[in-house]
Write a structure and sequence with these properties.
The strands form 2 sheets. A 5-stranded parallel sheet has the order 7-6-5-8-9. The chain has a 4-stranded parallel sheet with strand order 2-1-3-4, with helices on both faces. The chain is an alpha/beta fold. Helix content is about 35%, strand content about 15%. Helix 5 crosses helix 6 and helix 5 packs across helix 12.
Length: about 325
């Protein structure tokens, strides 16, 4: 692809190969091949180069229309999808329940039929119910992109996290990635587990046992090939990447965790605990951050933190996904 920076041209894994994109929808990444991961990240590198230009716009999706349909609040995901679409010269329609016929009781399927009648080419959906994007894909001719569904999946967040690590480390295979916090109820955690293990990284989950994947014994869990380690010091030892999850405070009221002070005492990422990771370890957080809860405030803007870079890279990765899913020509970027 033209204008791709040479330093970003390495393959993710030895097994990667050149392929053409064939997916009409992006619902999850559980069926991605290593070559498909590679293609997304390489395309994102090309889009990152576009974003470095004085004029951050190309005609790759001119004449296409993209709708964002968010049933839940969002700043980063929704904003970056809108910017991504506009940077590719697509037209954008933004819909929310409060400002559309959804508030009058219009169903998801009815809304999709309306968008279809308008000639929309792709719909970016966030929904509180797991599986909603799959239902949408059965009833829409347009491409469906999952921007987060319940506790199930957040594929574009995982891909931008993978790209952020790859951009700095130049590889993903064999890196130790620690996901710290409530991975039991987190769509971000689930998608990152699938993504990083899919390209050969080593994933460790850490947190209170009540907030880790359920099982009779924590050594046997739904994610084969990863490690579950409730001891934070053991988990962080030798980590290449530490990804802290937002603590969902409603878990405190459901009896799944002690009070916030107790959580901070045992699982807050502070400077002393982060020092157990490798000297060049990366600190990540999908946002929004509960400051001084899951992470010590001084760490948020420390040199190891790539939290702001994750937000910036979200635009490039979502540009890449829109380009691949809807379809463009190489000479247009």
């Amino acid at each position: 692809m033209s204008n791709m920076e040479k330093e970003r041209s390495e393959l993710l894994t030895e097994e990667s190969e050149q392929i053409n994109w064939t997916k009409k929808h992006l619902l999850d990444i559980d069926d991605f091949s290593k070559a498909e991961f590679d293609l997304v990240l390489k395309t994102a590198s090309a889009m990152k180069e576009i974003l470095s230009r004085p004029i951050k716009k190309v005609p790759a999706l001119r004449g296409k229309t993209i709708a964002t349909l968010f049933y839940e609040p969002s700043t980063r995901t929704r904003g970056s999808f809108e910017l991504a679409a506009k940077n590719l010269s697509a037209d954008v329609i933004n819909l929310t329940p409060a400002s559309s016929s959804i508030v009058k009781g219009e169903s998801l399927i009815d809304t999709l039929h309306t968008l279809q009648a308008m000639g929309v080419n792709a719909v970016v959906i966030r929904h509180s119910m797991a599986g909603a994007p799959y239902l949408a894909a059965k009833h829409a001719r347009a491409s469906i992109i999952n921007a987060g569904d319940g506790w199930h999946a957040h594929p574009t967040q995982a891909l931008l996290d993978m790209y952020t690590v790859y951009e700095q480390k130049k590889r993903l295979k064999d890196l130790k990635v620690v996901i710290l916090g409530d991975s039991r109820h987190s769509r971000v955690a689930r998608s990152n587990i699938l993504g990083f293990t899919g390209v050969g990284a080593k994933v460790t989950l850490c947190g209170p046992l009540t907030l880790l994947p359920p099982s009779i014994n924590y050594k046997y869990h739904p994610y084969p090939g990863i490690e579950i380690e409730p001891d934070i010091q053991k988990a962080l030892n030798g980590a290449d990447v530490v990804m802290v999850l937002r603590l969902q405070k409603e878990r405190q009221h459901s009896g799944l965790m002690p009070d916030i002070r107790e959580y901070k005492n045992h699982y807050q990422l502070n400077r002393q605990r982060f020092a157990l990771a490798k000297p060049d370890a990366m600190l990540m957080h999908p946002g929004p951050v509960n400051e001084n809860v899951e992470i010590e405030p001084e760490l948020i803007r420390c040199p190891a933190s790539v939290i702001d870079r994750q937000v910036a890279n979200g635009i490039a990765v979502r540009m890449a996904l829109l380009y691949l899913v809807i379809g463009g020509k190489n000479d247009e970027i």
